[in-house]
Amino acid sequence: MNLLLFLFVLSVIGIELYAYQALKTATNKGWFRWFYWGITSLGYLIFLIQLVMFIAGAKYRGLIGLSFASFITVLIAKWLIIFLLFSEDVVRLLVFVGRILGLSAKPQPYMPSRKKFISQIALGLTALPFASVIYGVFKGRYDFRVIHHTLTFDDLPKSFDGYQITHISDLHMGTFDNKEKVNYAIDLIMRQQSEVILFTGDLVNNESTEVLPWLTTLSKLSAPDGVFSVLGNHDYSEYKRWERPEDKEADFEHLLQLQKKMGFQVLRNESVTIERGNEEIALVGVENWGDRFVKKGDLDLAQKEVKTDAFKILMSHDPSHWEQIVKNHPTKYHLTLSGHTHGMQFGIEIPGWIKWSPIQARYKYWAGIYTDNGKVINVNRGLGCLGFPGRIGIWPEITVITLKKSAIVL
After folding, report:
1. Mean pLDDT of 374-393
2. Residue 102: its pLDDT value, please?
3. CATH superfamily of 146-405
4. SS (H, E, C) 11-47
5. Residue ranges of the chain assigned to CATH 3.60.21.10
6. How confident is the model at residue 410 (pLDDT cuts 50, 70, 90)?
7. DSSP secondary structure string, 175-225?
Protein backbone atom coordinates (compact mmCIF):
# COMPACT_ATOMS: atom_id res chain seq x y z
CA MET A 1 0.00 0.00 0.00
CA ASN A 2 2.83 2.41 0.90
CA LEU A 3 4.54 1.64 -2.42
CA LEU A 4 1.30 2.33 -4.35
CA LEU A 5 0.84 5.59 -2.49
CA PHE A 6 4.44 6.58 -3.25
CA LEU A 7 4.00 5.77 -6.96
CA PHE A 8 0.73 7.72 -7.04
CA VAL A 9 2.30 10.81 -5.47
CA LEU A 10 5.28 10.50 -7.82
CA SER A 11 3.03 10.31 -10.88
CA VAL A 12 1.01 13.33 -9.71
CA ILE A 13 4.20 15.36 -9.29
CA GLY A 14 5.32 14.30 -12.77
CA ILE A 15 1.98 15.31 -14.30
CA GLU A 16 2.07 18.69 -12.58
CA LEU A 17 5.61 19.42 -13.72
CA TYR A 18 4.77 18.34 -17.28
CA ALA A 19 1.68 20.56 -17.39
CA TYR A 20 3.63 23.47 -15.88
CA GLN A 21 6.18 23.13 -18.68
CA ALA A 22 3.40 24.05 -21.14
CA LEU A 23 2.70 27.20 -19.15
CA LYS A 24 6.37 28.21 -19.07
CA THR A 25 6.70 27.64 -22.82
CA ALA A 26 3.49 29.49 -23.70
CA THR A 27 4.02 32.61 -21.61
CA ASN A 28 6.64 34.30 -19.47
CA LYS A 29 4.09 36.26 -17.44
CA GLY A 30 4.98 35.78 -13.78
CA TRP A 31 1.49 36.57 -12.50
CA PHE A 32 -0.01 33.88 -14.73
CA ARG A 33 2.31 31.27 -13.25
CA TRP A 34 1.30 32.27 -9.73
CA PHE A 35 -2.34 32.03 -10.82
CA TYR A 36 -1.69 28.53 -12.21
CA TRP A 37 -0.20 27.24 -8.98
CA GLY A 38 -2.95 28.91 -6.95
CA ILE A 39 -5.68 27.15 -8.91
CA THR A 40 -3.78 23.86 -8.77
CA SER A 41 -3.29 24.08 -5.00
CA LEU A 42 -6.96 24.96 -4.53
CA GLY A 43 -7.96 21.95 -6.61
CA TYR A 44 -5.98 19.51 -4.49
CA LEU A 45 -7.23 21.16 -1.30
CA ILE A 46 -10.80 20.62 -2.48
CA PHE A 47 -9.99 17.01 -3.29
CA LEU A 48 -8.68 16.44 0.25
CA ILE A 49 -11.75 18.11 1.77
CA GLN A 50 -13.99 15.88 -0.36
CA LEU A 51 -12.08 12.80 0.76
CA VAL A 52 -12.29 13.70 4.45
CA MET A 53 -16.01 14.51 4.22
CA PHE A 54 -16.70 11.25 2.38
CA ILE A 55 -14.83 9.24 5.03
CA ALA A 56 -16.75 11.12 7.75
CA GLY A 57 -20.04 10.23 6.03
CA ALA A 58 -21.11 13.82 5.43
CA LYS A 59 -24.29 14.49 3.46
CA TYR A 60 -24.23 16.01 0.01
CA ARG A 61 -24.38 19.80 -0.07
CA GLY A 62 -24.62 22.10 -3.06
CA LEU A 63 -21.38 23.91 -2.21
CA ILE A 64 -19.55 20.59 -1.91
CA GLY A 65 -20.84 19.57 -5.32
CA LEU A 66 -19.74 22.83 -6.91
CA SER A 67 -16.31 22.48 -5.35
CA PHE A 68 -16.03 18.97 -6.68
CA ALA A 69 -17.10 20.17 -10.14
CA SER A 70 -14.36 22.79 -10.01
CA PHE A 71 -11.75 20.18 -9.16
CA ILE A 72 -12.90 17.91 -12.00
CA THR A 73 -12.74 20.85 -14.41
CA VAL A 74 -9.14 21.65 -13.48
CA LEU A 75 -8.25 17.98 -13.75
CA ILE A 76 -9.75 17.61 -17.24
CA ALA A 77 -8.02 20.78 -18.41
CA LYS A 78 -4.68 19.52 -17.08
CA TRP A 79 -5.00 16.21 -18.89
CA LEU A 80 -5.87 18.00 -22.13
CA ILE A 81 -2.67 20.02 -21.86
CA ILE A 82 -0.64 16.87 -21.18
CA PHE A 83 -2.18 15.00 -24.11
CA LEU A 84 -1.34 17.73 -26.60
CA LEU A 85 2.18 18.26 -25.30
CA PHE A 86 2.88 14.55 -25.17
CA SER A 87 1.74 14.20 -28.79
CA GLU A 88 4.14 16.99 -29.77
CA ASP A 89 6.99 15.36 -27.87
CA VAL A 90 6.33 12.02 -29.61
CA VAL A 91 6.60 13.77 -33.00
CA ARG A 92 9.85 15.42 -31.97
CA LEU A 93 11.22 12.08 -30.74
CA LEU A 94 10.38 10.40 -34.06
CA VAL A 95 12.10 13.22 -35.99
CA PHE A 96 15.16 12.92 -33.76
CA VAL A 97 15.35 9.14 -34.23
CA GLY A 98 14.90 9.60 -37.97
CA ARG A 99 17.93 11.93 -38.08
CA ILE A 100 20.04 9.50 -36.03
CA LEU A 101 19.16 6.59 -38.31
CA GLY A 102 19.70 8.67 -41.42
CA LEU A 103 16.09 8.33 -42.53
CA SER A 104 15.78 12.07 -43.03
CA ALA A 105 17.33 13.60 -46.17
CA LYS A 106 18.62 16.58 -44.25
CA PRO A 107 18.85 17.60 -40.62
CA GLN A 108 15.66 18.98 -39.10
CA PRO A 109 16.19 22.22 -37.22
CA TYR A 110 15.00 22.49 -33.63
CA MET A 111 11.81 24.54 -33.70
CA PRO A 112 11.05 26.09 -30.31
CA SER A 113 8.42 28.30 -31.95
CA ARG A 114 6.36 25.22 -32.78
CA LYS A 115 6.65 24.00 -29.19
CA LYS A 116 5.42 27.38 -28.00
CA PHE A 117 2.59 27.33 -30.53
CA ILE A 118 1.43 23.87 -29.34
CA SER A 119 1.64 25.00 -25.71
CA GLN A 120 -0.47 28.07 -26.46
CA ILE A 121 -3.05 25.92 -28.26
CA ALA A 122 -3.15 23.55 -25.26
CA LEU A 123 -3.74 26.41 -22.84
CA GLY A 124 -6.37 27.89 -25.13
CA LEU A 125 -8.26 24.60 -25.41
CA THR A 126 -8.53 24.36 -21.63
CA ALA A 127 -11.34 26.91 -21.96
CA LEU A 128 -13.52 24.19 -23.48
CA PRO A 129 -13.84 21.96 -20.39
CA PHE A 130 -14.26 25.05 -18.19
CA ALA A 131 -17.08 26.36 -20.36
CA SER A 132 -18.72 22.93 -20.60
CA VAL A 133 -18.68 22.35 -16.85
CA ILE A 134 -19.95 25.83 -16.08
CA TYR A 135 -22.84 25.32 -18.51
CA GLY A 136 -23.51 21.83 -17.17
CA VAL A 137 -23.72 23.04 -13.57
CA PHE A 138 -25.77 26.19 -14.04
CA LYS A 139 -27.85 25.36 -17.14
CA GLY A 140 -27.46 21.75 -18.25
CA ARG A 141 -28.74 20.19 -15.03
CA TYR A 142 -32.04 22.03 -15.53
CA ASP A 143 -32.31 21.54 -19.29
CA PHE A 144 -35.23 19.14 -18.95
CA ARG A 145 -36.04 17.22 -22.12
CA VAL A 146 -39.26 15.37 -23.01
CA ILE A 147 -38.47 12.31 -25.11
CA HIS A 148 -41.31 10.53 -26.93
CA HIS A 149 -41.38 6.87 -27.91
CA THR A 150 -44.13 4.91 -29.64
CA LEU A 151 -43.87 1.16 -29.04
CA THR A 152 -45.92 -1.39 -30.93
CA PHE A 153 -46.89 -4.83 -29.60
CA ASP A 154 -48.84 -7.65 -31.21
CA ASP A 155 -50.47 -8.77 -27.97
CA LEU A 156 -51.32 -5.40 -26.44
CA PRO A 157 -54.99 -5.49 -25.34
CA LYS A 158 -57.06 -3.49 -27.80
CA SER A 159 -58.44 -1.21 -25.09
CA PHE A 160 -54.88 -0.01 -24.38
CA ASP A 161 -54.09 0.99 -27.96
CA GLY A 162 -52.75 4.54 -27.58
CA TYR A 163 -52.18 4.21 -23.82
CA GLN A 164 -49.65 6.81 -22.63
CA ILE A 165 -47.08 6.42 -19.87
CA THR A 166 -44.80 9.05 -18.37
CA HIS A 167 -41.61 7.48 -17.09
CA ILE A 168 -39.32 9.40 -14.71
CA SER A 169 -36.35 8.22 -12.69
CA ASP A 170 -33.47 9.19 -10.38
CA LEU A 171 -34.79 12.40 -8.87
CA HIS A 172 -32.03 12.58 -6.20
CA MET A 173 -33.86 15.39 -4.44
CA GLY A 174 -30.94 16.08 -2.09
CA THR A 175 -29.02 17.53 -5.03
CA PHE A 176 -31.58 20.13 -6.11
CA ASP A 177 -31.36 23.70 -4.83
CA ASN A 178 -33.60 25.67 -7.22
CA LYS A 179 -37.30 25.41 -6.35
CA GLU A 180 -38.41 27.33 -9.43
CA LYS A 181 -36.63 24.92 -11.78
CA VAL A 182 -37.95 21.86 -9.95
CA ASN A 183 -41.49 23.25 -10.11
CA TYR A 184 -41.00 23.70 -13.85
CA ALA A 185 -39.99 20.04 -14.18
CA ILE A 186 -43.08 18.89 -12.27
CA ASP A 187 -45.32 21.11 -14.42
CA LEU A 188 -43.66 19.70 -17.53
CA ILE A 189 -44.44 16.17 -16.37
CA MET A 190 -48.06 17.06 -15.71
CA ARG A 191 -48.45 18.77 -19.10
CA GLN A 192 -47.87 15.42 -20.79
CA GLN A 193 -51.32 14.32 -19.53
CA SER A 194 -50.39 10.64 -19.41
CA GLU A 195 -52.72 8.00 -18.00
CA VAL A 196 -50.09 6.83 -15.52
CA ILE A 197 -46.79 8.13 -14.08
CA LEU A 198 -44.10 5.57 -13.28
CA PHE A 199 -41.05 6.46 -11.19
CA THR A 200 -38.17 3.96 -11.22
CA GLY A 201 -36.29 4.82 -8.06
CA ASP A 202 -33.56 6.85 -6.36
CA LEU A 203 -35.73 9.52 -4.79
CA VAL A 204 -32.87 10.60 -2.49
CA ASN A 205 -29.09 10.51 -2.24
CA ASN A 206 -28.50 9.43 1.36
CA GLU A 207 -31.52 9.82 3.64
CA SER A 208 -35.25 10.45 3.73
CA THR A 209 -35.07 14.02 5.10
CA GLU A 210 -33.86 15.20 1.68
CA VAL A 211 -37.46 14.88 0.48
CA LEU A 212 -38.98 17.16 3.13
CA PRO A 213 -38.34 20.53 1.37
CA TRP A 214 -39.93 19.09 -1.78
CA LEU A 215 -42.92 17.30 -0.31
CA THR A 216 -45.51 19.80 -1.54
CA THR A 217 -43.87 20.04 -4.96
CA LEU A 218 -43.74 16.29 -5.54
CA SER A 219 -47.30 15.88 -4.27
CA LYS A 220 -48.46 17.72 -7.40
CA LEU A 221 -47.74 14.62 -9.47
CA SER A 222 -50.93 12.78 -10.32
CA ALA A 223 -52.45 10.73 -13.13
CA PRO A 224 -55.83 9.04 -13.80
CA ASP A 225 -54.40 5.55 -13.20
CA GLY A 226 -52.05 6.64 -10.43
CA VAL A 227 -48.40 7.34 -9.67
CA PHE A 228 -46.35 4.21 -9.00
CA SER A 229 -42.76 3.86 -7.87
CA VAL A 230 -40.06 1.33 -7.07
CA LEU A 231 -36.96 1.66 -4.93
CA GLY A 232 -33.47 2.42 -6.21
CA ASN A 233 -30.19 1.59 -4.50
CA HIS A 234 -30.01 5.06 -2.91
CA ASP A 235 -33.44 4.67 -1.29
CA TYR A 236 -32.30 2.07 1.26
CA SER A 237 -30.33 4.47 3.50
CA GLU A 238 -27.15 2.60 2.55
CA TYR A 239 -24.94 5.61 1.87
CA LYS A 240 -24.87 7.20 5.31
CA ARG A 241 -23.11 5.97 8.42
CA TRP A 242 -25.77 5.36 11.05
CA GLU A 243 -24.99 5.13 14.75
CA ARG A 244 -27.47 2.29 15.21
CA PRO A 245 -29.01 -0.22 12.77
CA GLU A 246 -32.47 0.73 13.99
CA ASP A 247 -31.84 4.37 12.93
CA LYS A 248 -31.14 3.18 9.40
CA GLU A 249 -34.30 1.07 9.37
CA ALA A 250 -36.35 3.98 10.74
CA ASP A 251 -35.06 6.26 8.00
CA PHE A 252 -36.01 3.72 5.35
CA GLU A 253 -39.52 3.39 6.78
CA HIS A 254 -39.77 7.18 6.86
CA LEU A 255 -38.95 7.32 3.16
CA LEU A 256 -41.74 4.84 2.42
CA GLN A 257 -44.18 6.93 4.45
CA LEU A 258 -43.15 10.11 2.65
CA GLN A 259 -43.76 8.46 -0.73
CA LYS A 260 -47.21 7.40 0.46
CA LYS A 261 -47.87 10.94 1.67
CA MET A 262 -46.90 12.29 -1.78
CA GLY A 263 -49.39 9.95 -3.43
CA PHE A 264 -46.82 7.47 -4.76
CA GLN A 265 -47.75 3.78 -4.53
CA VAL A 266 -44.50 1.90 -3.93
CA LEU A 267 -44.37 -1.56 -5.49
CA ARG A 268 -42.11 -3.83 -3.47
CA ASN A 269 -41.93 -7.13 -5.31
CA GLU A 270 -45.61 -6.94 -6.12
CA SER A 271 -48.01 -6.14 -8.92
CA VAL A 272 -51.19 -4.22 -9.70
CA THR A 273 -53.55 -4.33 -12.64
CA ILE A 274 -54.75 -1.43 -14.74
CA GLU A 275 -58.14 -2.04 -16.30
CA ARG A 276 -59.96 -0.77 -19.37
CA GLY A 277 -63.40 -2.35 -19.61
CA ASN A 278 -62.92 -6.11 -19.46
CA GLU A 279 -59.24 -5.92 -20.45
CA GLU A 280 -56.19 -5.25 -18.30
CA ILE A 281 -52.43 -4.92 -18.23
CA ALA A 282 -50.18 -5.89 -15.34
CA LEU A 283 -47.79 -3.42 -13.72
CA VAL A 284 -45.02 -5.31 -11.90
CA GLY A 285 -42.57 -3.58 -9.57
CA VAL A 286 -39.45 -5.12 -8.03
CA GLU A 287 -37.16 -3.78 -5.35
CA ASN A 288 -33.66 -2.87 -6.40
CA TRP A 289 -31.65 -5.61 -8.09
CA GLY A 290 -28.12 -4.63 -9.00
CA ASP A 291 -25.06 -6.74 -9.67
CA ARG A 292 -22.96 -4.35 -7.55
CA PHE A 293 -25.58 -2.71 -5.36
CA VAL A 294 -28.56 -3.65 -3.19
CA LYS A 295 -30.09 -6.88 -4.42
CA LYS A 296 -33.60 -7.26 -2.99
CA GLY A 297 -35.60 -7.65 -6.17
CA ASP A 298 -37.61 -10.86 -6.39
CA LEU A 299 -39.13 -11.22 -9.85
CA ASP A 300 -40.92 -14.50 -9.10
CA LEU A 301 -42.56 -13.06 -5.99
CA ALA A 302 -43.53 -9.88 -7.83
CA GLN A 303 -45.34 -11.77 -10.59
CA LYS A 304 -47.06 -14.24 -8.27
CA GLU A 305 -50.53 -12.73 -8.81
CA VAL A 306 -50.07 -11.95 -12.52
CA LYS A 307 -51.89 -13.96 -15.17
CA THR A 308 -49.56 -15.93 -17.43
CA ASP A 309 -50.85 -14.36 -20.65
CA ALA A 310 -51.14 -10.80 -19.28
CA PHE A 311 -49.42 -7.88 -21.01
CA LYS A 312 -46.71 -6.92 -18.49
CA ILE A 313 -44.86 -3.70 -17.73
CA LEU A 314 -41.96 -4.20 -15.32
CA MET A 315 -40.43 -1.45 -13.19
CA SER A 316 -36.88 -2.28 -12.11
CA HIS A 317 -34.38 0.43 -11.19
CA ASP A 318 -31.13 -1.08 -12.45
CA PRO A 319 -30.91 -2.12 -16.14
CA SER A 320 -28.41 -4.84 -15.26
CA HIS A 321 -31.44 -6.72 -13.89
CA TRP A 322 -32.98 -6.73 -17.36
CA GLU A 323 -29.70 -7.75 -18.96
CA GLN A 324 -28.96 -10.63 -16.60
CA ILE A 325 -32.40 -11.89 -15.60
CA VAL A 326 -35.44 -10.35 -17.28
CA LYS A 327 -34.69 -10.54 -21.00
CA ASN A 328 -34.01 -14.29 -20.81
CA HIS A 329 -36.71 -15.06 -18.25
CA PRO A 330 -39.29 -17.64 -19.38
CA THR A 331 -42.05 -15.17 -18.50
CA LYS A 332 -42.45 -12.47 -21.10
CA TYR A 333 -42.14 -8.93 -19.73
CA HIS A 334 -43.15 -6.88 -22.73
CA LEU A 335 -41.76 -3.56 -21.51
CA THR A 336 -39.26 -2.89 -18.72
CA LEU A 337 -38.62 0.60 -17.33
CA SER A 338 -35.31 1.36 -15.62
CA GLY A 339 -32.98 4.24 -14.74
CA HIS A 340 -29.90 4.21 -12.49
CA THR A 341 -27.15 5.02 -15.03
CA HIS A 342 -27.88 8.77 -15.49
CA GLY A 343 -26.01 8.30 -18.78
CA MET A 344 -23.15 9.26 -16.42
CA GLN A 345 -24.48 12.85 -16.86
CA PHE A 346 -21.84 13.25 -19.53
CA GLY A 347 -21.65 12.23 -23.16
CA ILE A 348 -22.48 13.07 -26.75
CA GLU A 349 -25.85 12.38 -28.33
CA ILE A 350 -26.81 13.41 -31.85
CA PRO A 351 -29.94 11.49 -32.93
CA GLY A 352 -29.31 9.19 -35.87
CA TRP A 353 -25.55 9.77 -35.76
CA ILE A 354 -23.81 9.30 -32.43
CA LYS A 355 -24.71 8.13 -28.94
CA TRP A 356 -21.76 7.87 -26.56
CA SER A 357 -21.01 8.09 -22.87
CA PRO A 358 -18.23 6.60 -20.73
CA ILE A 359 -20.96 4.75 -18.82
CA GLN A 360 -21.36 2.30 -21.72
CA ALA A 361 -18.12 0.66 -20.63
CA ARG A 362 -20.04 -0.45 -17.55
CA TYR A 363 -23.64 -0.83 -18.79
CA LYS A 364 -24.63 -2.34 -22.12
CA TYR A 365 -28.10 -0.79 -21.81
CA TRP A 366 -27.57 2.73 -20.51
CA ALA A 367 -29.98 5.21 -22.14
CA GLY A 368 -33.08 4.99 -24.32
CA ILE A 369 -34.92 2.11 -25.96
CA TYR A 370 -33.39 -1.33 -26.52
CA THR A 371 -34.96 -4.51 -27.88
CA ASP A 372 -33.60 -7.99 -27.26
CA ASN A 373 -35.14 -11.46 -27.32
CA GLY A 374 -38.54 -9.98 -28.19
CA LYS A 375 -38.55 -7.78 -25.08
CA VAL A 376 -38.16 -4.01 -24.76
CA ILE A 377 -36.47 -1.83 -22.14
CA ASN A 378 -36.36 1.93 -21.71
CA VAL A 379 -33.48 3.26 -19.61
CA ASN A 380 -34.36 6.76 -18.45
CA ARG A 381 -31.44 9.21 -18.16
CA GLY A 382 -32.81 10.56 -14.87
CA LEU A 383 -34.04 13.97 -13.76
CA GLY A 384 -31.57 14.68 -10.98
CA CYS A 385 -27.82 14.53 -10.49
CA LEU A 386 -25.46 12.65 -8.22
CA GLY A 387 -21.85 13.52 -7.42
CA PHE A 388 -21.17 16.01 -10.18
CA PRO A 389 -23.97 18.62 -9.88
CA GLY A 390 -24.44 19.11 -13.61
CA ARG A 391 -25.05 17.51 -16.99
CA ILE A 392 -23.00 17.80 -20.16
CA GLY A 393 -24.52 16.32 -23.31
CA ILE A 394 -26.78 13.90 -21.39
CA TRP A 395 -29.75 15.99 -20.38
CA PRO A 396 -32.35 15.36 -17.63
CA GLU A 397 -35.16 13.32 -19.11
CA ILE A 398 -38.92 12.90 -18.96
CA THR A 399 -39.94 9.92 -21.10
CA VAL A 400 -43.39 9.68 -22.66
CA ILE A 401 -44.20 6.22 -24.05
CA THR A 402 -47.26 5.53 -26.17
CA LEU A 403 -48.32 1.90 -26.51
CA LYS A 404 -49.77 0.83 -29.84
CA LYS A 405 -51.32 -2.43 -30.96
CA SER A 406 -50.01 -3.88 -34.19
CA ALA A 407 -52.45 -3.69 -37.10
CA ILE A 408 -53.86 -7.05 -38.12
CA VAL A 409 -52.84 -7.91 -41.66
CA LEU A 410 -55.31 -10.20 -43.50
Report:
1. 92
2. 64
3. Metallo-dependent phosphatases (3.60.21.10)
4. HHHHHHHHHHHHHHHHCCCHHHHHHHHHHHHHHHHHH
5. 146-405
6. very low
7. G---HHHHHHHHHHHHHT--SEEEE-S---SS-GGGGGGGHHHHTT---TT
